[in-house]
Inverse folding.
């Protein structure tokens, strides 16, 4: 494919609504879930990506991480010393990665790649990491100022590795080898249009660190005639904290947002927080997509139950976000059976209701109890309502130019639409009572155009 074709077709903000993505010129809603974060390192990669695509998934996370058993690191070993040589990108590592990008592209899957995962740079993984001075032939602990051992959680920020950039410690010795890593990433993805780039995994490092790599990546891609979409993922669970302002207040650096850490929040707080962030982005005048590349919540984890994770998956899209993806087990549902059911059903909903042209409007749901129902709508034209556990509410359809509507119920766990119903909009309200009093349900509502035009 010619470079001009890659630039034309690549993933980028949708030109008609920049809160969403377009890929190959068409608007796209990103849905996913995978068994691992660094999926390019898993042995059954092709089978896993094909499974994701088969249920309507088109979105995967890909951390450039190597800390799990069976993983390879991103540099070659020196044949004499057995240590890594940071001037030589690792053949097997990068071939695994490039194969992943290629397979994903052929299956229509967007990869969100994270350049640096802080958990590779502390405790046990740091002992194996090529950047550790005792593991490479390129520098010593004294020359690099990097420690040989870090016992604390990476959130303690004890590794000066993340201070190498000019605006911080300006450690050119370490920085030049970090550039080797990112230069190879550029070389392997510059001809691919299905990659989004996130600088870090849930970082709390100085803002200058991520900003440097965002600008570096953009400059490298620009040399090849390519645009690129970049963001940062902050550690703070509360979206109102200062960390998150470093992204949404700096559109000159970051072209989209990732608010994955909001998925630690339960129920209505999860919804309210994302609506607050969405409002800030819109009011800033620099409208950009807002992604959630990892959704916490599994009975095997400690960041919410499996029910929490399932609810969050739907609230993200009904709430106007551009993506939603289940986090890996044990903290998330990955691509297990339950995750696959939700991906399939949410894809069914967005194919019936064009959420790209909708806005969150839970205020249109009347007689709603706490966490009972969430709504997105293109007023008067189409409505989608998500019920986390059954419900009985009224939908305000005052903007429609008819009083007769078509209602479809989606049985989410069965992945099936029930036969459509023709319902009256009495006093501009439609009663939405789920077919059962519990379980996950979604309703799609549209004006009955045949009736409204008097032809049926």
């Amino acid at each position: 494919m010619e470079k001009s074709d890659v630039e034309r077709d690549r993933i980028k903000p949708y030109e008609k609504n920049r809160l969403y993505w377009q890929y190959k010129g068409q608007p796209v809603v990103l849905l996913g879930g995978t068994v691992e974060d660094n999926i390019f390192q898993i042995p059954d990669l092709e089978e896993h990506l094909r499974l994701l695509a088969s249920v309507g998934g088109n979105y995967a996370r890909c951390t450039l991480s190597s800390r799990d058993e069976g993983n390879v690191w991103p540099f070659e070993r020196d044949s004499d010393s057995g240590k890594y040589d940071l001037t030589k990108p690792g053949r097997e590592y990068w071939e695994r990665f490039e194969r992943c990008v290629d397979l994903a592209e052929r299956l229509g899957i967007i990869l969100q790649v994270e350049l640096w995962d802080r958990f590779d740079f502390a405790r046990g993984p740091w002992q194996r990491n090529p950047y550790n001075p005792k593991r490479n032939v390129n520098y010593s602990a004294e020359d690099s100022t990097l420690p040989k051992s870090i016992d604390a959680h990476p959130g303690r920020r004890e590794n000066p590795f993340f201070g190498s950039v000019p605006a911080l410690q300006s450690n050119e010795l370490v920085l030049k080898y970090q550039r080797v890593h990112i230069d190879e990433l550029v070389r392997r993805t510059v001809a691919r249009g299905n990659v989004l780039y996130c600088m870090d995994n849930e970082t709390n490092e100085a803002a200058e660190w991520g900003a440097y790599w965002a600008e570096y990546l953009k400059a490298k891609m620009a040399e090849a005639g390519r645009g690129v979409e970049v963001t940062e993922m902050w550690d703070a669970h509360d979206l109102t904290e200062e960390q998150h302002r470093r992204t949404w207040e700096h559109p000159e650096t970051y072209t989209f947002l990732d608010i994955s850490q909001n998925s630690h929040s339960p129920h209505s707080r999860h919804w309210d927080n994302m609506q607050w962030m969405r409002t800030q982005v819109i009011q800033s005048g620099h409208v950009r997509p807002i992604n959630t590349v990892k959704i916490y919540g599994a009975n095997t984890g400690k960041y919410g139950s499996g029910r929490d994770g399932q609810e969050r998956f739907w609230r993200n899209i009904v709430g106007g976000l551009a993506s939603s993806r289940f986090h890996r087990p044990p903290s998330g549902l990955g691509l297990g059976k339950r995750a696959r059911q939700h991906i399939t059903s949410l894809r069914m909903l967005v194919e019936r209701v064009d959420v790209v042209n909708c806005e969150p409007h839970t205020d249109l749901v009347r007689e709603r109890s706490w966490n009972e129902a969430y709504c997105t709508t293109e007023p008067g034209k189409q409505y989608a309502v998500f019920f986390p556990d059954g419900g009985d509410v009224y939908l305000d359809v005052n903007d429609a130019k008819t009083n007769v509507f078509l209602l479809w119920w989606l049985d989410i766990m069965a992945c099936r639409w029930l036969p459509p119903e023709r319902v009256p909009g009495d006093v501009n309200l439609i009663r939405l009572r789920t077919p059962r009093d519990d379980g996950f349900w979604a309703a799609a509502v549209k004006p009955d155009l045949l009736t409204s035009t008097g032809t049926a």
Summary: Residues 359-452 form a domain with the Immunoglobulin-like fold (CATH 2.60.40). Residues 87 and 180 are 7 Å apart (CA to CA).
